[in-house]
Amino acid sequence: MRAKIIGTGSCLPDKIATNDYLSTIVDTNDEWIQSRTGIQERHLVSSEAENTLSMAVKAAQRALLDADVLPEQLDLILVATVSSDFITPSTACMIQKELNACHATAFDINAACSGFLFALNTVDAYFQTGIYQTALIIGVETLSKIINWSDRSTCVLFGDGAGAVVAKASEEGILASLQGSDGTKGDILICKNRTNNNPYITTETNPDFLFMNGQEVFKFAVTKEPECIQSLLNQAKINASEVDYYLLHQANYRIIASIARKLKLPLEKFPINVDHCGNTSAASIPILLDEVNKAGKLEEGSLLLLSGFGAGLTWGAVLLKW
Ligand code: UT7
Question: CB burial class (10 A; 0-12, 13-18, 19+) of residue 129?
């Protein structure tokens, strides 16, 4: 049995920060941001009540409704995030409590922007072994809390949000998948956790923010992601043009356009939400999938290729039948 997605949902905070607004905070402008990234605006949490858990729960409830599945029917909840509200309990366990998904096992996965794909592959592996049959998979980020809002090279790029899917063990669904990691290049995109101040260690306790060597990440993305997609297509013996939609991690419009060029495919096959969401890391692919689904663009049997890359470094791709 393989994982078949049977429902989607998403949640974006109401507050929208435009490029013009950000140019009142840091030395930037709409022209630079749009021409280098394709981003026009992003959603940011704007109250204490809005956080990783609240967005994840809303996205999950919408996905469950779409799938016509009750929380108590779930036997697995996986959450991909690098921006949990708590170190422990996991966001997945907190969602389980909020939904009253009393029969589920719940845990988080940290694979940054590839996290949703890694979670989907993990669910698929569990379904193949027969251990679980019905799963809720969520990608959620409140990246605005780990961003340095005086660093123009990163603060204009990211946004907050959540996307969720419900997957069921079925004869057909995921057709093929690939994932990988290269920890040796981890230092080009990092965010340190809290420092240790135990009785033997005295460290500065300044909070650390996300640091990114943008050009190195860009080079990695435009090389690794098309390679990964091509390997997956070869593995599945499918021609690139047979895929109906490529749902790629939304980091930068130029990265997506470069991948489309390398695969010799029209941009119409590459739905975009980076323009209005910015980079929402683990949430970007499930939010995009929900937008495409709710826009009525998917039919039974549509072929979708989901792919992304991120900190770690990590990368992955999943080919599935809708
Ligand atoms: O999901 C995680 C993955 N992250 C990514 O995929 C990001 C990948 N990288 C990128 O998308 C691009 O590298 C960026 C969008 C981050 C940067 O674009 P770039 O074309 O590589 O610009 P750059 O870093 O080479 O900077 C060019 C110039 C610099 O000024 P000088 O040194 O040429 O005078 C920067 O200081 O642009 C300046 N700059 C800005 N100017 C206005 C950097 N950020 C800004 C800004 N507004 N926000």
Answer: exposed
